[in-house]
Design goal:
single chain; 369 residues; alpha/beta; Arc Repressor Mutant, subunit A; ten-stranded mixed sheet; nine-stranded mixed sheet; elongated
Length: 369
C-alpha cells in the first residue's frame, strides 16, 4: 500500500465517520425538538413533511413518513388536536383529503430546521457545479443504500438454511507477490479473533464456525462477508478466526456489527484499523506504530479496551458520549460532546496513533503493556 493509498483510505474512513456523526446529530436534534414541543418522533417526522411540502394528501404523507394508512389517521388526529395540521377536502377530487400545515407547524419548522437549512445553503453556495454533483450523487446513493437495507429488513423471510452453511469452514490465499494486505470483514459476526502469525506462509488463513461466509481475494485485499439471515439471535453462532501474514503491512476494516472482537495485532505492521457498525466488546492489542496510524471505532460499543506498547504516542478523540474514559490512568466520567486526550510528547512523535471514537461507548480504556 502506497502513502497515497493510505491517505485515501484514511479519507474514506473519515467520510464514513462524519456521515455517522451527522446521522447522530440529526437524530439528537429530532429528539430534542420532539421533547421541546411535546411530540413523539413519528408526529415530528410527519410535521417535517408538512413543513417542507405545505400541503399533501393523507396518502402522500403516509408514503413519505413510512406509515400505514391506519397509522397515519391516528397521527393526523393528534396533529389536528394540537393545532399542527388541518384536513380539508381536495377541491379537485372530493374523495381525497388534503393535509395542510398551520402557522404552528411553520413556526416549529423555522425554529428547529430553519437555521440548519440556512447554514447548509451557505455551505453549498461556496461550491462549484462539479463539487455539487459529487455531493448530490454521494448523498443520493447513500440514501438508496439505506432504503434498500430497510426493504431487506422488512421483507426478509426466515430461511431453512442449515446451521453449517454451504461454504467451507476454512479459507486461505497464497502470499505470492503481495506487498501489502487489507482485511475487510463485512456484515459482522458474533465473535471475531484476528492476529498476526509469523509462521504463516500464506497471505492469510481463516477458520469459521456456524454459517460459512463468502470470501473473496483480489490482490492483497481479503473480503469476508457474513451471511446475515435476520433470525433472532441466529447470527451469534457465526464466529471467525483470522490469522494474517506478518511480513506485509495490513489495513483492517471490520464493520457491520460484531458481538465480541479480540484483535492481537502486536506482530503486524498496522497501516490503519476501522471498527464500525457497533460492537458489544472490543479488545485490541496494538503494535508499535510506524508513521501516523489511524484507528477508528464508530457506531457504538459497550466496552472498548486498547492496549499499546509502552512509549507509543497516542491521541484519543471521543465524540458521541462515553460513560467512562480511562486514558493511562486519567479517568473521566460522563464524557459528552467532543473530548481529546493525548499521551506526553504526542505532538513531537513521528510514529504515533490517532484514535477516534464516535457513536457512544459505555466504557473506553486505553493503557500500555
Amino acid at each position: 500500500m502506497t502513502k497515497d493509498d493510505g491517505k485515501r483510505e484514511a479519507l474514506i474512513t473519515d467520510v464514513g465517520l462524519e456521515l455517522e456523526e451527522l446521522r447522530q446529530a440529526v437524530d439528537r436534534l429530532d429528539e430534542v425538538a420532539a421533547a421541546q414541543f411535546s411530540l413523539n418522533r413519528t408526529d415530528l417526522r410527519c410535521l417535517g413533511v408538512l413543513y417542507r411540502r405545505g400541503r399533501v394528501t393523507a396518502g402522500e404523507l403516509a408514503d413519505e413518513s413510512g406509515l400505514t394508512p391506519g397509522a397515519i389517521t391516528t397521527v393526523l388526529d393528534r396533529l389536528e388536536r394540537g393545532g399542527y395540521a388541518n384536513r380539508v377536502a381536495d377541491p379537485g377530487d372530493r374523495r381525497r383529503v388534503l393535509v395542510i400545515s398551520t402557522a404552528a407547524t411553520r413556526e416549529i419548522g423555522a425554529r428547529v430546521y430553519g437555521e440548519v437549512e440556512i447554514a447548509g445553503r451557505t455551505e453549498l453556495d461556496g461550491r462549484d457545479a462539479d463539487e455539487l454533483v459529487v455531493i448530490r450523487d454521494y448523498l443520493r446513493r447513500t440514501r438508496q443504500v439505506y432504503e434498500s437495507q430497510a426493504g431487506v429488513l422488512v421483507g426478509q423471510a426466515p430461511t431453512a438454511q442449515s446451521a453449517g452453511g454451504d461454504g467451507s469452514p476454512e479459507a486461505s490465499a497464497p502470499l505470492g507477490e503481495v506487498t501489502a494486505g487489507r482485511l475487510e470483514l463485512t456484515k459482522g459476526a458474533a465473535k471475531v479473533d484476528v492476529c498476526g502469525d509469523a509462521s504463516l506462509e500464506d497471505l492469510y488463513r481463516a477458520r469459521f464456525e456456524g454459517p460459512a461466509p463468502d470470501v473473496s481475494v483480489h490482490g492483497g485485499t481479503v473480503v469476508i462477508q457474513q451471511r446475515r439471515r435476520f433470525r433472532l439471535f441466529d447470527w451469534r453462532g457465526q464466529t471467525a478466526e483470522v490469522r494474517l501474514n506478518t511480513s506485509v503491512p495490513w489495513a483492517l476494516s471490520l464493520k457491520g456489527g460484531i458481538w465480541e472482537l479480540a484483535a492481537d495485532l502486536r506482530g503486524l505492521r498496522l497501516e490503519s484499523l476501522a471498527v464500525s457498525g457497533g460492537a458489544s466488546e472490543v479488545e485490541l492489542w496494538l503494535p508499535a506504530p510506524v508513521g501516523i496510524v489511524g484507528v477508528v471505532v464508530s457506531g457504538g460499543a459497550s466496552s472498548v479496551k486498547i492496549h499499546r506498547p509502552a512509549g507509543a504516542a497516542m491521541r484519543a478523540a471521543v465524540s458521541g458520549g462515553a460513560s467512562q474514559l480511562n486514558f493511562d490512568g486519567r479517568r473521566m466520567g460522563g464524557v459528552g460532546g467532543r473530548n481529546v486526550l493525548e499521551s506526553p510528547g504526542f505532538e513531537a512523535a513521528v510514529d504515533r496513533y490517532e484514535m477516534r471514537f464516535s457513536g457512544g461507548a459505555s466504557e473506553v480504556t486505553i493503557d500500555t503493556i
